[in-house]
């Protein structure tokens, strides 16, 4: 083990072993004999605040190796900055690679991304980041850019933050917090926050998989009108639980115009989350696209809270397609409109629609009442119950009274207390029953997920 103190020592010891690196700035362009990319296969632990600077000419590359880089005690930050294109690349050209980064920043990439799984991967590649940040990069914060279709690539971000990427739209207004591009890609987000990026917060292109647990999303799509804060492309898979999504008062007009979540195909689960539509100008908060088909899509949206939807805006839009799904045990609170329903194949049951100003369900041809499995919902807080529907009607199993009178059907609704025999709280709750504390929560314990 070496204690690295100079940029030359960093290059000399980068190929193998496990080393400490002293506090300071290590300029890759200052290497004796001329600058170069730093090909890193060794583990590095900083003993103080460390900066590895590509000087807009070089970058760090982890190739065919699985080192541990950074401080696992989360005491000393290691920053990789000013990469010539990407700040840091992980490549698996002949061997599987599974590096882990602890408490590392990736920032100010000149033309591309902060951290990238890069190139045609010849072997599987799994990258884990623990309490890392990607910010102010020209394009994306974290990205999988593999061009081969045969090998799996996974990026797992635990308690990470990605923000301010594509700050000046110099990346063609394409900077996402985290993104992938092929069906063999998987992104897992555990805790953390994704906000203020030029385009999306988490964007899956080309049919990959996105798993999110306990993260916060706000004020993305700063540079793109009508884009999506979270989206999954055709035949992709989306699993969301325990997230918090919202827009601040200072969000840009572009941010406000974006759908919170858009799904174009595959399988979808959204549960135990709080979605605050305050300041949203997009027509739909969650948009299931018209291109969905029964062969590839299953939808389950349950135990969420949708609140504060502005005039003529919807919490969920279901397209006219063979899509089959279930919307159950959600609370829609203080919205102008709740569900735009254009398919009889999606069951809507055991939800609470509270204080909806316009209509709770907008149908086109009795799509709600014609589904024999829909019903057992509560419509409450409106003077004329008939106005809960547009081109549809209430079912015999539905209630239009205070949900505290309902003792058997909606016991999983997130507006019910976990104690007190299910007594209903007639104001908006702070979190869903069964969800972990979402208010001000952006971190989870590493022991919960095996790090």
Q: Mind explaining what this structure looks like?
A:
- With 451 residues, the chain is mainly beta.
- Strand 1 (3-4), helix 1 and strand 2 form a beta-alpha-beta unit.
- The protein contains two helices and 42 strands.
- The longest helix is centred in the first third of the chain and has 6 residues, at 7-12.
- The strands form four sheets. Strands 3-6-9-12-15-18-21-24-27-30-33-36-39-41 form a 14-stranded parallel β-sheet, with no helix packed on it. The protein has a 14-stranded parallel β-sheet with strand order 4-7-10-13-16-19-22-25-28-31-34-37-40-42, with no helix packed on it. The chain has an eleven-stranded parallel β-sheet with strand order 8-11-14-17-20-23-26-29-32-35-38, with no helix packed on it.
- It has a single domain (3-401), classed as Pectate Lyase C-like (3 Solenoid).
């Amino acid at each position: 083990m070496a204690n690295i103190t100079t940029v030359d020592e960093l290059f000399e010891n980068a190929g193998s072993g496990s080393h400490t690196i002293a506090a300071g700035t290590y300029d890759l362009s200052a290497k004796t004999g001329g600058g170069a990319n730093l090909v890193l296969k060794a583990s590095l632990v900083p003993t103080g605040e460390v900066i590895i600077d590509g000087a807009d000419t070089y970058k760090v590359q982890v190739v065919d190796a699985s080192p541990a880089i950074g401080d696992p005690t989360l005491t000393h930050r290691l920053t990789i900055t000013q990469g010539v294109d990407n700040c840091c690349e992980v490549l698996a050209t002949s061997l599987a690679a599974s590096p882990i980064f602890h408490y590392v920043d990736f920032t100010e990439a000149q033309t591309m991304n902060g951290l990238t799984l890069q190139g045609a991967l010849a072997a599987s590649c799994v990258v884990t980041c623990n309490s890392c940040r990607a910010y102010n990069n020209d394009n994306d914060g974290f990205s999988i850019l593999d061009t081969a279709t045969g090998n799996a690539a996974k990026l797992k971000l635990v308690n990470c933050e990605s923000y301010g990427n594509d700050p000046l739209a110099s990346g063609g207004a394409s900077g996402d917090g985290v993104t992938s591009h092929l069906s063999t890609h998987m992104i897992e987000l555990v805790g953390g926050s994704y906000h203020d990026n030029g385009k999306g917060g988490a964007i899956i292109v080309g049919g990959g998989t996105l798993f999110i647990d306990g993260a916060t999303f706000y004020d993305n799509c700063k540079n793109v009108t009508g884009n999506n804060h979270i989206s999954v492309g055709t035949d992709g898979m989306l699993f969301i639980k325990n997230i918090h999504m919202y827009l601040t008062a200072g969000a840009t007009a572009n941010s406000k115009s974006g759908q919170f979540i858009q799904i174009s195909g595959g399988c979808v689960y959204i549960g135990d989350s709080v979605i605050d539509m305050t300041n949203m100008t997009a027509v739909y908060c969650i948009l299931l696209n018209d291109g969905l088909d029964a062969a590839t899509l299953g939808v389950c949206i349950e135990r969420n809270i949708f609140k504060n939807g502005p005039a003529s805006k919807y919490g969920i839009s279901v397209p006219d397609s063979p899509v089959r799904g279930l919307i159950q045990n959600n609370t829609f609170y203080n919205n102008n409109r709740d569900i735009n329903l254009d398919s009889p194949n999606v069951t809507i049951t055991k939800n609470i629609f509270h204080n909806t100003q316009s209509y709770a369900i907008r149908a086109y041809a009795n799509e709600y009442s014609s589904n024999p499995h829909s019903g057992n919902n509560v419509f409450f807080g409106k003077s004329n119950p008939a106005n809960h529907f547009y081109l549809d009607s209430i079912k015999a199993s539905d209630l239009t009274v205070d949900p505290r009178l309902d003792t058997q059907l909606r016991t999983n609704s997130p507006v019910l207390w976990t104690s007190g025999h299910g007594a209903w709280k007639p104001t908006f709750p702070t979190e869903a029953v069964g969800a972990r504390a979402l208010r001000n929560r952006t971190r989870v314990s590493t022991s919960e997920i095996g790090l």
